[in-house]
Amino acid sequence: MQMIGRRSAASRPQILVALAALGVAALGVPLRTNAQGDPQGAPARHGINPAYFDTTCAACNQFYQYANGTWLKTVTIPPDYAEWGAFDVIYEHSLVALRAALDSLPRSNPQPGTPEWKVVHFYASCMDSTRAESDGSAPIKPELSRIDSITGAPGLLAEIARLHRMGVGPVFFFFTAPDAKHSNDEIANLGQGGLGLPDRDYYFRADSVAERTRHVYVAHIARTLVLTGVPAATAGREAQRIMALETALAKASMTIVEQRDPKAVYHKMTAAQLATLTPGWSWTAYFRDYGRPDIATINVRQPKFFTAFAHLLRTTPIADWKSYLRWQYAAAAAPFLSSAFLTENFNMSSVLDGTTEIRPRWKRCLSQTDQQLGEALGKVYVAREFSPEAKAKALTLVQNLEAVLHDDLSTLAWMSEATRKQAQAKLDAFVNKIAYPDHWRDYTALTVEDGAFWNNVNAASEFEAHRQLMKIGGPTDRTEWPMTPPTVNAQYNPFLNDITFPAGILQPPFFDPEADDASNYGAIGSIIGHEMTHGFDDEGRQFDAQGNLRDWWTPADASEYNKRAAIVVDQYNHDLVIDTLHLNGQQTLGENIADIGGLRLAYAAMERALQGHPHALIDGFTPEQRFFLAYAQEWSEADRPAYARTLVQIDVHSSSRWRVETPISNMPEFAQAFHCQATATLVRPDSARAQIW
Ligand SMILES: [Zn+2]
Q1: Tens of pLDDT along 129-145?
Q2: What's the gap in Å between 354 CA and the centre of ligand 1?
Q3: Residue 44 lies in a domain
Q4: Ligand 1 center–CA 4 separation, angstroms
Q5: Among candidate residues 692, 638, 685, the one with its CA nearest the CA of residue 30
Q6: In 3D, which of 622, 637, 629 has the Cα closest to residue 66?
Q7: How does pLDDT run across 206-243, given as a tens digit for each residue?
Q8: Distance 594 CA to ligand 1 centre (A)
Q9: How many domains in the chain?
Q10: What is the 26 CA–ligand 1 centroid distance (Å)?
Q11: Of 321, 336, 351, which marks where a domain is finished?
Q12: Which domain holds residue 235?
């Protein structure tokens, strides 16, 4: 899935990586799993804040600096944030709104069991720090005893299935998704996983930072084991064995770039074929233990990984597997336990993201409630925060962008009629999900209790696992929402051919119904264009109007597309992020195509909206200039160096400066708006320009 946001290196990186690997693209906003902070002011209205400008530098050479330079010089990243920028300010604002929504619910609801009651009690059990401290490791003891009592492969298998149902991810992921070639059918999927570091490459890189990270990681595993009751004398050795096991899993794992090819992760097979792939491992028992013994067809995303896993199963002592499960389970639970666990978990994530403080409890608890009971809390949130009128206005904006893309497709010179027709059919089939769902999720089957918070997290994970499990074999529900309403992010899903813009991102300064067209199109318009373009990026273009992986391109058009995409790859390969680390143009290709295309579409939609209206100056800037300024300020962001280094290795999005400067350098409209000389840094000659959409 493609999102506009980024992934964080926080508490459970394996799950984050798996989501990204599914091919659903989000906007690239940091996940807020571990954050807090002073909002440094409420979001500014009207899109553009002149106090951010640094007009001492030339707009045509350093536009990111021109639009944000003064702010960048003075900003302090809050101690619990890995980065700080416009998205974070909106997120902080949303947290305050979410707390107000929660506080508006009666504390002693006369009807226990209602969704509102569950939200209140889930949050309250998270906030109970006194209980968490006095409980210590007690909430995880029963499961650790189960792991201790495993005596052979069948017991190991049953425990892996159990942990998966609890949302803990040892070894691999089992999940449901639409069949890539028959998107109306939900099928079972198996995907690589089981790593505690953010990506497979962390286990192999030879540079000194990577070596130190591995060293710190092994020590962190050992200390976590000690917290669970393993004697200090043996914890170090166990940690080494766990690291060896994870390294073997990493070795068999596909890289991020390899996983971006949807054909490379499509291997649909029968249960019998799967069994042949993994001698010694019983999928019949696993599916039975998980709760769906009838599963007969599975998409195995990385067959080689599963073969390697089966081999490891036969060759690794059972004691090592037990250590590994103990570690994986404790690491997953750590953020929800006493401060000893929480601090140990934080110390590791801070190595990867540079944060210096743990986020305040109320913010972590709100974020957990949003993750686990998102549509119950979200319903209360949107009733207070988002009007049907604002939803209608946002929909109009989306439709304006779609109209522009429709025209763009009909005039695109490099595409043949045959391919053009299919592309237009795909655009016409787009489904728009705006602000919040029409139908809210039913949480009746979820039990929330006043007790240890970890038990409630488990119950919520099991509820979700069961909900997902029941989908397998049934028709795809195209109305389900992939994000909760307060999420400050957006998404295109190639399997469903739909775009999602939650209420959380439809807020000032990105979207302000009171603001001028130029700043709205530069900010939220470019985000809308970005998600739409994902339908036609290097991955998205391989899916048709119904979301099926099917080649609808003539060979000549496909070849022209790839030629143009290669220019995009090359441009971003040259963009330096930190030290000597450049962006990886292949890893970020889909997002970069979406950024370049989205900005062009938004610009054309703005010009259309302004037709027949006077092009008035505001603060001395033309609408065209304000469009680009709003875009650059939307991506205002300061990163901690450790976080910047992590992102360049695992993120499929480019860093913020290049999300601004590389797309605009491909737009003659930018050079025209700021009267740039042909020799300016951000002006590319026609022959070097990247343009697909
Ligand atoms: Zn994206």
Answers
A1: 999 999 999 999 999 99
A2: 25
A3: no
A4: 4
A5: 638
A6: 629
A7: 999 999 999 999 999 999 999 999 999 999 999 999 99
A8: 6
A9: 2
A10: 5
A11: 336
A12: 140-336
